[in-house]
Amino acid sequence: MAEKRNITGQAPSSEYLLEVRHLCKFFNVNKSLLRRQPVYLRAVDDVSFCVKAGETLGIVGESGCGKSTLGNTIIRLLDATSGQVLFNGKDFTTLQQKELQAERANIQMVFQDPFSSLNPRMRVFDIIAEPFRTHHVCSGPELREAVFQLMDEVGLPRTSAFRFPHEFSGGQRQRIGIARALALKPKLIICDEPVSALDVSIQAQILNLLAELQKKFNLTYIFIAHGMPTVKHISTNVAVMYLGKIMEFAPKKDLFSRPLHPYTEGLLRAVPIPDPTLRDSEGTPILSGDVPSPVNPPSGCRFRTRCPYAQDRCREEAPELTSKDGSPHLVACHYPLENGQGILH
User: Fold this and answer.
1) Count of Cβ atoms closer than 10 Å to residue 4 Cβ
2) For residue 83, is it left (φ>0), alpha (ψ between -120 and 50) or beta?
3) Is 78 helix (H, G, I), strand (E, B) or coil?
4) CA angle 58, 26, 236 (to 5 degrees)
């Protein structure tokens, strides 16, 4: 049997905390009693990547591209249709319930909506204490001190411990969610658009908090977002998703200074910039039209229906995510940009 390899072309290595291999998540959306054949929405379709301990992988793309479904499938809030999620050498997709609960102490999640992700009937103390109680970590005075220490870490006053979530602002509620995620000292935290529902000034505070916590506790992040500036601020590597597939994967500096995929170029040009003369010199945004349905994606390259550079080969053959020059900069495009020029320097 041939040796399995990751997307970098290398054999699996213990240097990676997380390895996602050919992960798929399809939803059966056939609601017709007359149609016997299942109809699948291909939310995540053959996605592979690796993350080293202490890194932040930013996953970016338009709404509906499968980013949140990918995060939920990695942590097993959704069961994968196929593929593997290797965390600390264990395949998360095959763990039984008891073993899965034990391993989930090492993978936690911060959700997008800081209000609906918190139980409105529970006080803040009990929300943060819940992981300790569920995993039987501590109780009594030890539990009380552990909760208060977490509140200190995320910048919440201890005097607010016995208030309810509705008594807090959006930014404070997200700090509660972060404290809950930190409770069991996880190695990996999946952040599913954690700042998209917050004001701009509060977004910066939460991003800075996440960066500080990462350094202090040697955390690894998967940071899901639809805004390129947010991903640029916090990421080590960036994966660009479109219709369930990764279009480009690269170190942050390479992706923002030299994008190779037309979709990445379009996302960068869509970012508002303060100088209109610079916008004119760079040209108008190249993203046009609507995202096709993931139930019936285009043949060949999925981006071809919106790509200004598409040719006949793009219609007939799906490009593979590969490196064109042996570098860690991967792109799924038959005709990658030769002089890709990023906007966000």
Assistant:
1) 11
2) left
3) coil
4) 10
What is the C-alpha to C-alpha distance for residues 11 and 32, in angstroms, rounded to an integer? 45
Torsion-angle region of residue 136: left (phi > 0), alpha (psi -120 to 50) or beta? left
pLDDT, tens digit (0-9, with 9 covering 90-100), for 75-122: 999 999 999 999 988 999 999 988 998 888 999 999 988 888 999 999
pLDDT 10s digits, 41-56? 999 999 999 999 999 9
Backbone angles phi, psi at 166, to 5 degrees: -70, -10
Residue 50 near residue 19, CB atoms below 8 Å: yes
Which segments of 77-124 are extended strands (E)?
A: 82-87, 90-91, 107-110
Amino acid at 74: I
Mean pLDDT, range 27-52, rounded to an integer = 86
Residue from 177, 285, 184 nearest 228 by CA:
285
pLDDT of residue 283: 52
Name the token pair of 305: 């229906």
pLDDT, residue 4, reads: 40
Instruction: Specify the pLDDT at position 277.
Output: 62
Position 197 scores a pLDDT of 82
> From the centroid of its chain, how far is CA 216?
21
Q: What is the DSSP letter of 207?
A: H
Q: Which tens digit of pLDDT belongs to each residue from 275-328?
A: 666 655 555 456 778 888 889 999 999 999 999 889 999 999 999 999 988 889
Is the full-model pTM beyond 0.85?
Answer: yes
DSSP code of 293?
Answer: P
List, for residues 135-149, the tens digit of each pLDDT value. 999 989 999 999 999
Kind plus residue range of the DSSP H or E element containing 249: strand 245-251
Taking Cα atoms as reference points, which of 58, 56, 53 lies closest to residue 15? 53
Residues 127 and 52: beta-carbon distance below 8 Å: no
Q: Is the dihedral of CA 252, 253, 259, 263 positive or negative?
A: positive
Whether 188 and 87 have beta carbons less than 8 Å apart is answered as: yes
